[in-house]
Amino acid sequence: MYSARIFCIVLLLFSFGTTAGLAKKRAESTHSNHKASHSLAKANVGVSKKHGHYSHAYARHHRANRSQGPTVEQVPQEIFPPGHKFTPEEKAEASQIGALEESGMWKEAFKAATKAGKQHPERWWLQAARAAAASNLNRPKDTIDAVNAAIQNNGGDANRLNLAQLYTLRANAYSRLGRKADAMNDFLAATKLSKTDPMSRAGAAWLYATCSDAQIRNGANAVALATEAAKLTQWKDDTVLDVLAAGYAEAGDFAAAQKWEGKAIQLGGQGDIPYYERRLVSYQSGKPWREDSR
Fold it and tell me: Which residues lie below 8 Å from residue 25, measured CB to CB, with a gap of 6+?
């Protein structure tokens, strides 16, 4: 599902893991990892201080592999909730891990976050950072484990956006493991937690549009959620428009599918356009896209 544009860090923890940034995709089909996954090289992570805490701009998503659509890896926005009092030790710890993630050193960030998390299991944001790193390393089981720990140990410290991004990371991991129903549940839970997060909506829409399980597919739901995501990204995010096109195709409106896939091609980068063009050919032939399509 969607990979997203999220955040970069002064303390990357201040950003952890989505393109609220979107990361671009590399492969082709499951939008659960679509925009939550743009290639790291294209991820622009910037940090701005606001209201006394750090907020991060969504990084572009990258596609983890051919079977996944938009994904929100990279770094989710505001991993550190507003109002949290960080000790000097916590700030130094977050700064170290954040710098590693900001530099795309996901393996090193994963090791650092894992070690720190064992020493301080009460620091849920270390688990969030670990989840972000694991997601970028395409380690879905570790991502799920870290997200579970972050959710269980936050003690009410995580705000609704934090939780939405955690659920989205876990949904992408479930999707990679073929657990589509679990992925859908998490995506939908994330949409209820945050009214402004496009990636969870794009992720759910991608499953509704392309899942090989006919019991999950629902063209009307796909179009509705993808439209919400497109509005939230001001109709300028190519991976979201790609999802919207898939939704229309599943709903049987191939003219609209071709229109929005064409828009995605206009906005997409060189690494993504070939996948968009492949889907466009499918829609021109009157065929909806499936996550196992080639």
Answer: 3, 33, 34, 35, 37, 38, 61, 62, 63, 64, 68, 69, 70, 71, 239, 272, 275
Please, what sign has the CA dihedral across residues 237, 187, 163, 61? negative
Question: Residue 79, exposed/middle/buried by CB under 10 A (0-12, 13-18, 19+)?
Answer: buried
β-pairing, 53-56 with 23-24?
Answer: unpaired
C-beta separation of 27 from 233 below 8 A: no
Cα 287 from chain centroid? 27
Summarize pLDDT for 205-246 with one digit per residue, the tens. Answer: 999 999 999 999 999 999 999 999 999 999 999 999 999 999
Query: How many Cα atoms sit within 13 Å of 145 on the Cβ side?
Result: 11
Q: pTM here?
A: 0.78
User: Do 30 and 290 form a contact (C-beta atoms < 8 A)?
Assistant: no
Which residue ranges form the domains of the chain, and what is each CATH number? Answer: 12-284 (1.25.40.10)
What are the tens digits of pLDDT across the range 24-58? 333 333 444 443 333 222 222 222 223 223 223 33
Q: Which residue has the tokens 């509704």?
A: 208
